[in-house]
C-alpha cells in the first residue's frame, strides 16, 4: 500500500508543486505512458437519451480517447426493410501526431464490425 499513501500525499500538495513534480515529468513519453497509460474510455451514460443523441466530445492528452454516449432508438435499414434499431453514440479521438489516418480508419471499421456483431457477448 505504499503507492496508495504516496498518491494520497501527492493529492494534498499545492497545485503549483504538483505542476512542478508531475507535468514536467509528463514531457518524457516513457514516464507518461507508464503513469497514465495510452487509452482513455469514458461514458456519458444517459445524457441526451430523450433527444435520441448522446454524443461526447472527448479531450485528452492520450493517443486514443473513446467516449461512449447513450443508446438511441432510430429507424435503420435491416436487409431490405426499415426497422427500429438501437444505435450507440460513440466518439473516438486519435492523436494524429502518433497515429496515421489509414490505420485509424481500419481500426474504426473493425471496431464497428465487432460491436455490431456482439463480439464477446455470451447468450
Question: Which key phrases capture this entry?
Answer:
single chain, 123 residues, alpha+beta, three-stranded mixed β-sheet, 3 strands
Topology, please?
Blueprint: H1 2-11, H2 15-23, H3 29-36, E1 39-43, E2 64-78, E3 81-94, H4 101-117
Parallel strand pairs: 1-2
Antiparallel strand pairs: 2-3
Describe it for me?
This protein is of the alpha+beta class and 123 residues long. It has a three-stranded mixed β-sheet with strand order 1-2-3, with no helix packed on it. The protein has helices at residues 2-11, 15-23, 29-36, 101-117; strands at 39-43, 64-78, 81-94. The radius of gyration is 20 Å and the shape is elongated. Helix content is 36%, strand content 28%.
Rg from Cα: 20 Å
* Lateral strand order in the biggest sheet: 1-2-3
The overall pLDDT, averaged over residues, is 77
- Helix-strand pattern, N to C? HHHEEEH
**Which percent range fits the helix content?**
25-40%
The oligomeric state of the chains shown is single chain
Our count of domains comes out at 1
Low-confidence stretches: none
Give the overall silhouette: elongated
Label the structural class. Answer: alpha+beta
Percent of residues in beta strands: 25-35%
The biggest sheet, with number of strands, parallel, antiparallel or mixed sense and barrel status, is: 3 strands, mixed
Enumerate how many helices there are, as a single number: 4
Compute the number of strand runs.
3
For the record, give the distance between the C-alpha atoms at the N and C termini, rounded to a whole number.
39 Å
